[in-house]
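Here is one chain, start to finish.
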Amino acid sequence: MRILFTKGAGKHDRMDVIRDDAPSEQVDCPKQGIIPHDMVHFAVESVLRKRGFVTRVAAGEAADFRMDAEAESDGVERLVEVFQADGWAGWNSAPADMLDLYRVTCEARQCEALAVDVADVEAVRERILALTAQWQATAVGQSMALEF
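Its structure:
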C-alpha cells in the first residue's frame, strides 16, 4: 500500500490510500501545525510494528474515522496523541514524561497501554522528525509518498 500526502493551501491536507487490489481512498486531514495526524500514525506503526489505523487500512479496512475498537489499535491511537502533543510543544518533551502522559491518557480512556519504553519513544521521534523535514520541504499542491 502507498500513502500519498498532498499539502493543501487551505485548512486541510489530503491523504490518498493507494492499493494494488482495491480502489483508492481519499481522506481530508485537518491542518494542525505539524505533520498530518495519519503521518504520525505511519511513524508510530512502522517503527513499533503495532496495529493501528494505517496497519488496519493496509489490511483492507476502509480509511474511515469510525473503525471498531481494538485493544492494540486503541493503544496506538493514544500514543499518536501523545506524539502530537510533543509536536505542538516543539518535539522536545522528555521521553519519560511522554511515557507518563501516555499511561495517564490510557488510564483515563480505559485503554491498555502498549509496552513501550524510552528507546521506543526516541526511535519514533527520530522517524517523525525525518518525516517533518520532508513535509516542510513539500510545497503546497505537492505530494509526499510513503510505502507501508
